[in-house]
Amino acid sequence: MKMKRLLLPLVMLALTVTAFATDISGAWKGTAQTPNGTIERTFNFKVDGNKLTGDTSSEMFGKSTIEDGKIDGDNISFTITVNVQGNEGKVNYKGKVKGDEIDFTVEIPAVNRTVEYIAKRVTEAKP
Questions:
Q1: Which class would CATH give 22-121?
Q2: Which residue, 68, 65, 62, is CA-closest to 50?
Q3: What is the Cα–Cα distance from 49 to 65, expressed in whole angstroms?
């Protein structure tokens, strides 16, 4: 009987811990290899519970606001709108957080292409 009383709180604790969203707040820098060369993008994430907001920027596509951002454990997803030569298009990000790294699969529906990004947390250098 004592074992059952101990087991229930442990199970509840495990379920509670897995329900929390991973905190990825802050700056991240990502790179992707494409047929046109390396693309870099900076991500500035803000987390509020399971909601992900913020913005991203790149030299090639400028600044974009994160839309429909969600965090579920170590899985994240969001959409941005990019402007290419006056044409706007949605870009869908899905990623898996692994410590200070996020592996993204990026879907670009307008050109029927998928790109893999690896983003790393930006840490400020200590003086």
A1: mainly beta
A2: 68
A3: 19
